[in-house]
């Protein structure tokens, strides 16, 4: 007698278990995983990094241009990341791995590290389905869509805030941005990034998996830019 035949003679609650152990694995095997194919993704995450935290934590290993006291960068672009509803593609084949250095120079005002620009292209930009120039133009447009709350534009001394308070400030400054459409991340108790989910047309959208990655700390420190 086969295993599937024996299942028909079981009580209802055991029959359910039997079907789950036989049929569900077969169904899951029939669902191919999404491959890292350029242009095949659902939405973008715009990751805005709080530069003072990066400079403070990286110290001598930080980008000299980004952390030079004469620049005093605040929120800068970490990257524009193609995402699946669950997971994300990375380092997609078929796209050029090297890009013109002039692109990195053109992005210095919002991505103040050439190495960051090159890395973001290789890991994320290659999955966008766009040529390098268009991908970084889209990155700039995404950055331009976001209004940074005033408190972060004027902060000049260490601050304390709850992740939920940071999120609320961004929501109030950006009409249409929802609580489940972003995440605030932290590192070693300090504000690290604000990650905002956008459609492929750069409209705000929900993204529950990204939202769940947010900082769980009740309070975080917000380092100020280095004094000039």
Write a structural description.
This protein is of the alpha+beta class. The protein folds into 2 domains: 1-31, no CATH class; 43-222, Ribonuclease T2-like (Ribonuclease Rh, Chain A). Helix content is 37%, strand content 17%. It contains 10 helices and 6 strands. The protein has helices spanning 3-7, 12-29, 51-58, 64-67, 101-106, 114-123, 132-145, 150-154, 163-173, 208-211; strands spanning 43-50, 75-83, 159-161, 182-187, 190-198, 220-222. Residues 1-10 and 14-32 have low confidence and may be disordered.
Write a concise keyword list for the protein shown above:
228 residues, alpha+beta, Ribonuclease Rh, Chain A, 2 domains, 10 helices, 37% helix, 17% strand, disordered N terminus
Can you describe this structure in just a few lines?
This protein has helices at residues 3-7, 12-29, 51-58, 64-67, 101-106, 114-123, 132-145, 150-154, 163-173, 208-211; strands spanning 43-50, 75-83, 159-161, 182-187, 190-198, 220-222. With 228 residues, it is an alpha+beta fold.
- Reported by name, the CATH topology of the largest domain is Ribonuclease Rh, Chain A
Helix content: 25-40%
In this structure, how is the largest beta sheet organized?
Answer: 4 strands, antiparallel
CATH architecture of the largest domain: Alpha-Beta Complex
Radius of gyration: 22 Å
The number of E-state strands comes to 6
**Sequence of secondary-structure elements:** HHEHHEHHHHEHEEHE
Low-confidence stretches: 1-10, 14-32
């Amino acid at each position: 007698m086969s295993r599937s035949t024996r299942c028909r003679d079981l009580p209802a609650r055991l029959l359910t278990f039997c079907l789950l152990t036989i049929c569900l694995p077969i169904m899951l095997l029939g669902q191919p995983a999404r491959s890292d194919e350029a242009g095949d993704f659902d939405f973008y995450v715009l990751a805005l990094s709080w530069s003072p935290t990066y400079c403070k934590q990286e110290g001598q290993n930080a980008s000299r241009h980004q952390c030079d006291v004469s620049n005093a960068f605040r929120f800068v672009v970490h990257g524009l990341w193609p995402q699946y509803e669950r997971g994300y593609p990375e380092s997609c084949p078929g796209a050029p791995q090297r890009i013109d250095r002039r692109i990195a120079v053109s992005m210095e005002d919002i991505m103040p590290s050439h190495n960051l620009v090159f890395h973001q292209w290789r890991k994320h930009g290659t999955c966008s389905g766009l040529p390098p120039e268009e991908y970084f133009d889209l990155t700039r447009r995404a950055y331009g869509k976001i209004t940074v709350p005033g408190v972060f534009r004027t902060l000049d001394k260490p601050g304390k805030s709850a992740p939920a308070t940071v999120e609320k400030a961004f929501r109030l400054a950006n009409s249409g941005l929802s609580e489940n459409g972003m995440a605030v991340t932290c590192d070693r108790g300090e504000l690290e990034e604000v990650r905002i989910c956008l459609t492929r047309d750069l409209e705000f959208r929900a993204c529950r998996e990204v939202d769940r990655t947010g900082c769980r700390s009740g309070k975080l420190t917000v380092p100020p830019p280095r004094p000039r």
